[in-house]
Amino acid sequence: MADFSDLTLDVAKLRRDFPILDREVHGKPLVYLDNAATSQTPRQVIEVFDDYYGRYNANIHRGLHTLADEATAAFEGTRETVRAFLNAADHREIVFTRGTTEAINLVANSWGRANLKAGDEVLISRLEHHSNIVPWQLLAGELGFTIKVIPVDERGALDLAAYRDLFTERTKLVAVNHISNAFGTVNPVAEMARVAHEHGARILVDGAQAAPHQAIDVQAIGADFYAFSGHKVYGPTGVGVLYGRAELLEAMPPWQGGGEMIKTVSLEAPTTFADIPHKFEAGTPAIAEVIALGRALQWVGDIGLPLIGAWEARLLEHATEGVAGIEGLRILGTAPEKAGVLSFVVDGAHSQDIGLLIDQLGVAIRTGHHCAQPLLSWFGVDATCRASFAAYNTPEEIDVFIEGLDRVVGMLR
Ligand code: C6P
């Protein structure tokens, strides 16, 4: 049993922030272990919606009235909160998007269209989520560049020697996740950025699974672009962030046109565009969601990501030890650097059936391909069960999960 005693996380107190954790599912207390899909939301974040719609709902940047001023100040204040969260050099480097997926599509359609051409090469890894594969495939289909794949070893760790060998003078971009959603592998993105820059390439880091689990420093990583989603870091859905280095964003063309992103519009002369980041934020944004994201990042900051990460690592250790006793269970993803994700298959039991039956015991896990089909098919499976951990999970919940899994697997065989 993993020892949690040296960690100062007051998990009982922290759990009181999450009303949803009190609910029952099929008459059993909810054990929520699907945090990599979406994390639960503390009441401090939920309250932002009440406060915003109850007191200062207004469109931002446009009005001169008090409500518009208050909404604009809260929205733009969040940009500074996100800047600090990522340790970006400048708040103008923070672009609000609908999520990680939209952030990557923004880079593909703006930076990609301006900088990639036939004969160029983009490196992605076999660990990628579909969000960091399909935008590049769509663009490659149009522009004719080549996508090359960084291989993984049998543990699901990236092969760094192979990564270095993939570079040629035609390599323009590396697009890689910081932490794999399907296996939990933590990638050495700072080292990967160094190698990319040595070859004159840019690097985009998909941080969807990293932002909730470890402190992010985009400058220390050397990321040119970094993306994450609000709903995986205790915030709401519908909002995410693209960090881009100012000089890159400044040189990039807009990708969506509309209000908010212009300086002047004329029917007789070319339209001129707003400065960054507004050039990339066409139309009315998800105002309440952005403000709520800021509150979520404050909540995370109050606890501290190093402590959250350490707690989750202990939960992972506890769960990994626990499932070892289940006959025929095979863990996929055993890289030495791993975050709080436990992905597994069980001989003679379909992942889907395990997921459905364990839900009857109140335990929520995810089953399927986790939007990482190239990775799973490389490992010869089309689905796994995935338990993923958050700050509010407890060792006792892991025990319920393991006992339940044991029972369910027994029923299915
Ligand atoms: N992964 C999971 O269960 P969006 O949907 O835009 O918020 O995030 C997309 C995304 C991009 N990259 C990585 C590494 C991700 O894990 C995800 C979302 C969820 O694993 C839903 S498929």
Percent strand? 15-25%
Helix content: 25-40%
Mean pLDDT: 97
What is the total domain count? 2
The structural class is alpha/beta
Q: Rg to the nearest angstrom?
A: 22 Å
Q: What compounds are bound to the protein?
A: ligand C6P
Multimeric organization: single chain
Number of helices: 14
Q: In CATH, what is the class of the largest domain?
A: Alpha Beta
- Which architecture of the largest domain per CATH? 3-Layer(aba) Sandwich
Rough outline: globular
Number of strands: 17
CATH topology of the largest domain: Aspartate Aminotransferase, domain 2
First-to-last CA distance: 27 Å
Unreliable runs, pLDDT <50, ≥5 residues? none
Describe the sheet with the most strands.
Answer: 7 strands, mixed
Lateral strand order in the biggest sheet: 4-10-9-8-7-5-6
Relevant CATH superfamily of the largest domain: Type I PLP-dependent aspartate aminotransferase-like (Major domain)
Characteristics:
17 strands; 4-stranded antiparallel sheet; 16% strand; binds ligand C6P; 2 domains; 413 residues; Aspartate Aminotransferase, domain 1; Aspartate Aminotransferase, domain 2; 14 helices; alpha/beta
How would you portray this structure in words?
Helices cover 39% and strands 16% of the residues. The protein has 413 residues and is α/β, with parallel strands linked by helices. It has two domains: 11-41 and 305-412, Aspartate Aminotransferase, domain 1, CATH 3.90.1150.10; 47-302, 3-Layer(aba) Sandwich (Aspartate Aminotransferase, domain 2), CATH 3.40.640.10. The strands form five sheets. Strands 4-10-9-8-7-5-6 form a seven-stranded mixed sheet, with helices on both faces. The two termini are 27 Å apart. The model has no long low-confidence stretch (mean pLDDT 97). Ligand C6P binds at residues 36-37, 99-101, 129, 131, 177, 181, 206, 208-209, 229, 366, 370-371.
